[in-house]
Amino acid sequence: MRHATVVSALLVSALSVACGGDGTGSASGASSGGSGNGSGGDANAGGGGSGNGPGGCGISTGYAGDDRCLAPPAPGEGIQIHVGPTDYTDSAEVAQFLMQPGDESSECWTFHTPNMEKVYYQSFELSGRPGTHHIINTMYKTELEDGGFSACKDPGVGLSGDILANLPGASRPVILREPVAPENEHIASEIPANTPSQADMHYFNLTDQPILREFWLNIYTVPESQVTEASNQIRGMGGLSWNFTPIPPQSHDTYQYTCPIPADGRVIELIGHTHAHGIRETAWIRHAGGDRTKVFEQFNYLEPQIFYYDTVTQNPAFSEREAGALTGQLPVVAGDSLDWECEVNNDSDVALRYTNEVKTGEMCNIWGQSVGPLINCVLQ
After folding, report:
1. What is the pLDDT of residue 11?
2. Could you tell me the CA-to-CA distances from 204 to 49, 167, 208 in Å, in that order?
3. Which of 228, 301, 292, 288 is nearest to 261 (CA)?
């Protein structure tokens, strides 16, 4: 077993992504117009669409995933953020988003949120074309110029002092909108007006055809009068020491991490994140008295689950090789900790570092949402 030490703690907010096919909201922005146990995780489903999407919105580009497109929210119900071509007949514009067979990249696209006044949201839906591994949408305090892929202003660990908060994000191609539990109806996150933002888009193309790096995000708003409390993003980054001491080739080990819980409250959502050599990720709440409760376990990096802990969600039961989680609300108290571990089978001839490469890098991360405590750690 390998154990982690805390490097630093950070405070961030929430993640997400999605698809809008009405032509509004260009690659550089979005148009006006949560949560979800999504489908997806198909590596790179082929054809004109994967069949896993939320229904499509009538586009026909010839690239895989046309059916992933989302129609925007109805006027007054929310906003849409779309990163991708606005004109699929313009070869120069499409070329910005093309990814050739065998390629992999993690770059940021810059945009401004389309809301012209402050809004609050509770739920969202996301839809990315096949090849989507993760999307991290971050809002910034200083102005940024829209458009173009470039190196990300923050490398994904949330340590930049210029970060304002996060928009919803994803570690799988499709996240469906989920109902808000009654005990969470007063909880929401804020999006300031027309905020400079970046989408950190990790894509890989395992097919023999070009694909598009493209996603649509629908964010559903609620009246400010309904909001009395904000949620906090849970962020646990495990494995950064692998950049200094890589995981050896032909090794099989388990790496363990712990993040303190400094206040009373509830965990309302958890998401695990590994790469191809991460064959299991398990999380627990370790109680102040020493005993611990297993809260989720998953085994397939291509099928990361989003687990909700509330009065309306029925999580799948634990099993030996299928993802499962505790069902019901998940209260925590000061002195508890969030513990997790990743079993990594590096059956390759390459030493694995903490990088975005799916096959030649590895991660052991955990994300989520809480009410009350700030549970955020960067760990070696």
Report:
1. 28
2. 16, 22, 12
3. 288
